[in-house]
Design goal:
Structural class: alpha/beta
Distance between the termini: 33 Å
Strand order of the largest sheet: 13-12-11-10-6-9-8-7-14
Radius of gyration: 20 Å
CATH class of the largest domain: Alpha Beta
Shape: globular
């Protein structure tokens, strides 16, 4: 028996890697692929040679010939698709973000719990050697108790190659929710801590004046469950053509670790720089394998469901704080 997998929405290039990963898994059978907007079907589907199988996403879900739905529509549409699929008794994997409101996230959580359904978000850092090595150092007590952290996830704006809907009002849903789920996932995983509150967050338009509602700049400060503070920047201000790796800086009571791409530095008091081997510590290679392998073989997920949803909720709370100006806003428990 195989996991039947369908794809709903082809509005972000991330869908291509998820589709290819699914194609490479012998226990996954792709049974459907739909993009609702016929004016953009050729952009990603056509370029990848993927054929439309149903008239609409609603028709795909109503037919129900799948076990696992992958959602890669524009951001503000994803939550509604996810809720409809869960109501139909289907498992989910989505590109990040899963949805754009706290209320949608809470409904998704409730539907998944009630139906015994799996929900997975493609926080792809989990599957990389550098990120796993950083997390292992922190998890093993290599920096002691986490005290402060800085996460830098700047991106180039890439106007012209980035999907046009990013700059169409009402489709994006905010830059912190768009990007910083990677940061909340990695810090939560490495430290084992939860996100207690958003101390402050801002998201604004700094240079893309031709799309004044698009947040090309975003910064955030969280308090963790042990009192540690996390500062983040996930702006779209990297110069075009420049190298833009994510950067993680974590300081603890007994050391410091810094990751920049695959370059990892670990230092201890009185010992200086420690030897580090950047290596994969887990055999799972990607998010589709993670969730589909769990459904097919009962294997434990590297990115567990509770961790996944907590990281997403922390990003959503950060976005809400930025949009409303609220300070010291508790992160909803999920």
């Amino acid at each position: 028996m195989s996991v039947r997998m369908a794809f709903a929405g082809f509005r972000h290039g991330h869908v291509t890697s998820l589709y290819k990963e699914a194609q490479g898994l012998p226990y996954v059978q792709i049974t459907g692929a739909v993009e609702d907007d016929d004016s953009v079907r050729g952009d990603i589907m056509g370029a990848a040679g993927i054929e439309q199988t149903h008239e609409s996403i609603d028709a795909l879900i109503d037919e129900g010939n799948f076990d696992l739905l992958c959602i890669c529509d524009y951001y503000t549409k994803r939550g509604g698709i996810a809720i409809k699929a869960l109501e139909a008794g289907k498992h989910l994997i989505t590109d990040k973000p899963l949805c754009t409101t706290i209320e949608q996230m809470q409904q998704i959580k409730q539907l998944a719990d009630d139906g015994g359904l799996a929900v997975h978000i493609a926080y792809t850092m989990r599957y990389g050697a550098g990120y796993q090595s950083m997390a292992r150092i922190v998890q093993d007590g290599g920096i002691g108790r986490l005290c402060t952290a800085i996460v830098l996830g700047q991106h180039p704006l890439a106007y012209g190659s980035r999907p046009n809907w990013y700059f169409e009002e009402g489709k994006h849903g905010g830059t912190i929710n768009d990007l910083f789920g990677h940061g909340t996932d990695m810090i939560g995983w490495a430290s084992g801590l939860s996100f207690e509150k958003v101390i402050a967050a801002e998201a604004w338009n700094a240079r893309a004046d031709w799309a004044p509602f698009f947040q090309d700049s975003a910064q955030i400060v969280y308090q963790m469950s042990n009192g540690a503070k996390l500062m983040g920047d996930c702006s779209y201000l990297t110069p075009e053509g420049s190298h833009a790796p994510w950067r993680f800086f974590l300081w603890g009571t007994d050391g410091y670790v810094h990751l920049c791409g695959e370059e990892l530095v670990w230092e201890k008091p009185g010992q200086g720089e420690m030897p580090v081997e950047v290596a994969k510590h887990y055999s799972v290679d990607g998010p589709v394998e993670d969730i589909a392998g769990h459904l097919e073989n009962g294997t434990d997920r590297l990115l567990g469901q509770d961790e996944c949803l907590r990281a997403a909720m922390a990003a959503l709370a950060g976005q809400k704080a930025a949009d409303t100006g609220e300070r010291d806003m508790p992160v909803p428990v999920i």
